[in-house]
Amino acid sequence: MLAPAITREADSVGTPTRVTFPYRPPGRSADGKRCPVLVVGAGPVGLTVALDLARRGVDVTLIDEKDTVSVGSRAICWAKRTLEIWDRLGVAAPMVAKGVTWNRGRVFLRDGPLYSFDLQSEGGEKFPAFINLQQYYVEQLLAEAAMAMPGLDVRWKHGLAAIEPHADGVRATIATPDGEYVLDCAWLVAADGVRSAVRRAIGLDFQGQVFEDRFLIADVRMKASFPTERWFWFDPPFHPGQSTLLHRQADDVWRIDFQLGRDADPEREKEPSRVLARVKAMLGPQAEVSLEWASVYTFQCRRLARFREGRVIFAGDSAHVVSPFGARGGNGGIQDADNLAWKLAAVLQGAAPPSLLDSYDAERVQAADENILNSTRSTDFLTPKSAASRAFRDAALALAQDHPFARALVNSGRLSLPATHDASPLNTPDAADQNFAAAMRPGSPAANAPLFDGNRSLWLLDRLGKDGFTVLRFAATSDEHRADVAPMEKLQGVSCVTVGLNGATGMLRDAEGLAARRYDAGPGTTYLIRPDQHVAARWRRPDLDAIRAALARAQGRAA
To answer: 82 and 143: one domain?
Structure first.
């Protein structure tokens, strides 16, 4: 539940919801005390990785130089995969309850509709394609969960002043209102954003491209009858020659993004009177709106060369940054946290060698490059830089209304999808004779599906990766189920989940057949699922040695 006592503090544009967290002085015990993991930055990514580590039994210290949630809505679009990750941590339900659910979007050209789309046309999902929820609410819910989590020490107004990396750990100097202290840790996770103090402290910089075009974000409060959809305009009459994006958020707050020229003055464009003039040109002069927050940004598509530097690991915006069109930044950062936490816990608990963390770098650099590629293409479509690219853009828009093939060419921000780690060293490739569909291949995020346990309904993902690796089996009869499960019980630290096919009883029942279809499953089909709910391997009928070898590979150990 959200805390009921939330205050609004007014400034020139009206500050959005804020909440202040308690500061604790460091005390004498802070000096010389070594912690397993120090997480720097209590934004959504840092809070998520700290919660996940603590849930896996790792003691974590989380520091942040501020004691409040973010100002302004910032990240607002949270994808289905992100909600599935947060659901595993027990925080998704209040986010969905507070947020605005949406699956559909519309694209407009000038003053008319071009086409619409549905991101989740098939049912059988626990979560929608996206919810819109302001980042300050997300941070509040995550922070409240973190402060209630055993083994997780959250320290507000404790900021990083300096670090000394060593071969077996990191020494951090931490500044507080009551002075500095030193904290030694085995591993440091930098989740402190695009202006990362950790990144600066060890002299690292981004590689990539900064675009000159500017965009205005405005959060306005208003009562409006627009449907809960993503609306995007190319060359609208209220903002000719540019583009505009509209999203609904919680509390009757609406996010509007206006494309500006590259010569726009950021400070002038943020002036409340100028922002409201743009909004009223869009909605009509009689619209009753108030401005909550405004910001001007430029597109950036950049990342670090490596996300792991010895005992320092980067996640979220401290590691990579992309344009906000497509909701790839925040969602990509949460997937970083999901990928990292189980690996770091396994290393600290002796279940995997430290080299397992090299796979974090390999997998999440690939995901960042995918996001950067999509973000760059969106930028090029929205702001063509040559006569040829503009001609292509205009032709795609002209054809899109009547020709479905052209709609795939229209790029108003390719929306976030979870990464499939095709090249991961943790994958066991399909055998040549397995004849599997391409979906759900090794490296893919596991699909969800509705199931029944007797008369009780549940979701498949609720049974996968909760406490470690999972062997997911499909069986046609209860006898087959019993025969298959017996060998699996010899795998230490691995849970086994069996789904019955064609209404088979005595196991989880795939009443709608969606699990079998999404996993291309027949009797005996078996998947090895990682703790982050990604597929490590799959077989039509494996033996125990094959599963053991795939498990060793997925844990970064020799088979």
So the answer is: yes
No. of helices (H) and no. of strands (E), the chain: 14, 26
Helix axes 328-348, 80-88, angle to 10 degrees: 30
pLDDT digits (tens, 9 = 90+) for 324-365: 777 888 999 999 999 999 999 999 999 999 999 999 999 999
Residues 185 and 39 in one domain: yes
Helical residues (DSSP H) of 408-490, grouped into ranges: 478-488
The three-state secondary structure class of 287 is coil
Domain count along the chain: 3
3-state secondary structure at position 163: strand
Instruction: Single out the residue of 52, 551, 57 nearest to residue 349, CA to CA.
Output: 57
Does some domain include residue 377?
no
The answer to whether residue 371 is domain-embedded is no
And the tokens for 397? Answer: 């828009």
- Identify the pLDDT of residue 300: 84
Asked whether the predicted pLDDT for residue 7 surpasses 50, the reply is no
CATH code of the domain containing 549 = 3.40.30.120
Task: Give the CATH number of the domain where residue 343 resides.
Answer: 3.50.50.60
Count CA atoms closer than 13 A to 335's CA, side-chain side. Answer: 29
pLDDT, mean of residues 230-242: 94
Q: Give the contacts of 429 (CB within 8 A, at least 6 positions apart).
A: 442
Has residue 388 been placed in a domain? Answer: no
Q: Hey, what are 448's tokens? A: 């969800």
The mean of the pLDDT values for the chain is 90
Domain end marker among 270, 299, 328: 299
CB-side exposure of 440: number of CA atoms within 13 Å?
21
Over residues 199-227, mean pLDDT: 89
Collect all residues with Cβ–Cβ distance below 8 Å to 218 and sequence separation of at least 6.
255, 256, 257, 258, 275, 278, 279, 291, 293, 294
Residue 325 domain boundaries: 28-99+121-207+301-357
Backbone angles phi, psi at 60, to 5 degrees: -130, 140
> Is the CA virtual torsion 265, 271, 273, 275 positive or negative?
positive
Helix (H, G, I), strand (E, B) or coil at 314: strand
**pLDDT tens digits, one per residue of 24-40:** 998 755 555 789 999 99
- 47/159 same-domain check: yes
